[in-house]
Amino acid sequence: MWCRHCKQDVPAVAPATDGAVHCARCHGTLDQPAFATGVSDAGVGLDQESRRTAEPQKLLAGLDDAYRLDDMRRTIRGAQRRAGNAPRMLRFDPPELFVEQARVEPPVAESSKQRVDQPIRDSHRPTQWAAWALALAGAMGLGAGLGLMFWSLTEARPELWDWGVGATLGGQGLLIIGLVQLIAGLWNSSRTANNTLRGVHQELRRLGRTTESLLGANSSTAANFYADLARGASPEMLLANLKGQVDALSSYVTRD
User: Fold this and answer.
1) Residue 241 forms part of a structural domain
2) Bridging pattern class, strands 8-9 and 2-3
3) In angstroms, what is the C-alpha Rg of the chain?
4) Domain annotation covers residue 65
5) Are the C-beta atoms of residues 229 and 242 closer than 8 Å to each other?
6) Is the pTM of this model over 0.70?
């Protein structure tokens, strides 16, 4: 039977001199259920009319409370078994979002990340302008060189051929350098956008975990726990629900 002094199930002892039931550990008086009645030594007559000791509604309510207490006791015993060699005592803390506190990132890492990303973001624009200028200059040089070479062939002016070849080669070189710079700038921009999207995804996941933890803490009942377990809820929500049940049990034990 449950002893409210020892806070656990203990064997019941009934002395011969007293009809009350006592605890085997602390020898305190145990609270007997409403439906438990003592049996006299003379026995019960077969023709004696059975008497009702309690209302059926009260008996059903007491059984429901007893089932809930048994579920909570099994949860606490499972937590004690998982504790290993720790002292056999329970610690009841006030409700808190312990799941989210374990995942809070340090502000130093966040500030260092911002310091690293800021120069890269500021240096993108000058690099892009220089790449576009080189590409345009190379295209203009290539066009001018081809024009001089065509003019030299059509007008029979061989002195313009050398100028046309030099302008064509120089324009090709500048155009290649500008295109390479543009490709590198596009790659850096895509990498920055990918990092930004990854950070947004992490923030959304953190927000989802916070919401599930709040829902589990607010609806901490055995029925909601098994319903969430059946629909495949996240472990954070299930842990928050269990912690809410343990907190409710601690408040119940404190009131008792």
Assistant:
1) no
2) antiparallel
3) 41
4) no
5) no
6) no
